[in-house]
User: Which sequence fits this backbone?
């Protein structure tokens, strides 16, 4: 649910993830694509590259455009994998 976290919460999440995911481990995220750059809701591949890159020791292994399917519709989304070095 990374795509619903606020800006500061995302930084804390990434920082804490390093203590859980072992070297070589993969964190996968499926989240709504950010539609409005003025809000924190949603994700972009660029944001994940930046956040995990700034944290150090991570690299985006893959990223795909997809859809997030819900009971009453679909939203554009991204599915990304971030590997810990």
Assistant:
């Amino acid at each position: 649910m990374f795509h619903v976290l606020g800006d500061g919460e995302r930084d804390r999440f990434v920082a804490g993830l390093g203590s859980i995911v072992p070297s070589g481990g993969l964190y996968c995220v499926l989240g709504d694509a950010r539609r409005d750059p003025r809000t924190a809701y949603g994700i972009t591949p660029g944001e994940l590259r930046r956040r995990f890159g700034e944290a150090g020791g991570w690299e985006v292994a893959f990223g795909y455009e997809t859809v997030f399917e819900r009971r009453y519709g679909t939203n554009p989304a991204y599915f990304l994998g971030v590997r810990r070095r």
About this structure: The CA atoms of residues 58 and 84 lie 4 Å apart. The longest helix spans residues 7-17.
